[in-house]
Amino acid sequence: MIALLTGMLATAVLAGGVLALAALGEVLAERVGVTNLGVEGLMSLGAVVAIITVAATPSPWLGLLAATAAGTAGGMVFAFAAVIMRANQVLCGLAVAFMGLGLSATIGHDYAGMPSPATFGHVAIPVLSALPVVGPAIFAQNLPVYLIYLVLPAAAHWVMFHTRHGLNMRAVGENPAAADAAGIAVTSMRFWYVTLGAGLAGAAGGYLTLTYVPVWSEGLIAGRGWIALALVIFAGYRPFAATLSGLLFGLITALSFVGQARNWPIAPAILNMLPYLGTIAFIIVPVVVWHRMRRVMAAPAALGVPYHRDIR
Amino acid sequence: MARIVQRLPSVSPGRVLAWRVGAVIAALLLTTLFLALSGRDPALLAELVVRSTVGSRFGLEDLALFMTPLVLTGAAVTVTGRIGIWNIGAEGQFYAGAIGAAGIGLFVHGPALLVLPLMTVCGVLCGMAWILVPTLARAYAGVNEIITTLLLNFVAALLTSYLAVGPWHDRVTGALASTARLPVAIPDLWGVVHWGFPLALAVVAALAATLDRTRWGYEVRISGANPEAARYAGIPVRARIVAVMLLSGALAALAGVSEVAGTVHRLQGGIANNFGYFGIVVAVLARGSCLNVLPAALLMAFILDSGIVLQTQQLTASTVLAITGLVLFMIAIGDELAHYRPVSTSRLSTNKGAAP
What we know:
heterodimer; A: mainly alpha; ABC_transp_permease (chain A)
């Protein structure tokens, strides 16, 4: 039982890390008022670039860096269209998702099925890793785990809610015209946060192939990008909540893993549906059950609306 | 600061069309450039593409075969677009329709004249059931339909492969991940093109008439353009949203039925072949008009058919997805650029003088 719990939590931390990282990136983009629907494609791009990089230079950190760079580049393409050209965000997002998925399949064609030559190793933290269950599951993980669950959300939370820059950033997402009038550079704020968020999506894809599923195949991301998008709504556009909901969905994924490993009398395909069905339930049930939730968890007011200075 | 461009609040359809044609050409040129840079001969590729699409009887048959599901999924996304909703789940509803049709085809035996309509009805009901939860969540709780419809695509794909390798697996020939061949099929019309093709065209024509010429269609459009005004005018907006989304699910499912009963003749994993996602592209190209879905689906079928040529050139089938994404991307930018027109500086200065 202890072994089962430990294994499940360890899987949840890994699987959840991928979602948490991508969701955190999307929180940044959506807080400045831009919905980036391209996350799935950007993650796919990050995943394949990470594999290709570690095939050349066997350092997982370089792989993660390259994945982040790939996501950033893809994000700049998206932000060019959606922020600078002010094109329809749903269209650009879907276009980037398609391009990312197609491009990653094309450049990853020769790497399909090849196991990742380098992955992140486990580092046991002295004392803490000796704790039962949480010790091996949380304190004997790869190092990026701490980056994903602690450093990045803490940094994002602090910047967003405890600095003037964060106030400006949220103003851009709530009321870009007012922010513009107050002298905030709306376009550049949007461009850079969307790009940064896309970089995190790329990193999430790289993290997937460098730790949890260390092999490239087409369709590897399997909807994780879209789940991350849903988590942002579920988390009410808050960094720590997004990270924690990533972990929660990691647990659901782990449940289907454990079910398959222990030969539960449920078909694996049905167990694999759990994360998707769970996500749907988690974004529908709260608004149905608790109506006040809608106001507490409301999206930034200008989310999805391109900002034109000319229109008054 | 002298502004040399001016943003127009609304744009004429002709202007948008011109920009879109330019966008599609730009996307195809960029693709050719990429292929040339990766060491492939564009002239040879172009010749192969023409021969495998419009240049031969085989090619034309393939185009019609690709067009059939695209017309229906494109119409499915167009319909929801009329009321301001994105149905990104046409892929899942396609699977649901395929499952429903295959279930009847495999287990109900009888004359084709009886079984085929039954397959269609069952498939369509499955498609409507598949979009039901996102529909109710959107209409009554305001839950974002993009994510809910999309996530169900993965569930539908898993369910399809589960059925194809599990309970419905063909145990006689033991084919990999597929059910047995269905005993009934939609009759062929012209080569490999079956009656599903003209039927799909007829469905879209009927849909265009309903949306453009009836009171119901008008109410749908008003509900999409201005929900507040629609409610004030006494239009039951929620009921219209529910009806339109269910109709959309039915159309996408119909594509699945035609694919199972007319083209593939069995249920297999991945049978939807991204047709649901390409339906989004068709709908975007069609710009909300059902009749425009036909040329848009033709263009999309042409791109997909060309993709087969690319596969003979050591590129994966997914390269087409990237090309489609590029087309979509260019169109998104083109649509926005169509809003701008150059303004001569002299006129600008007089305007400035007149402005309060």
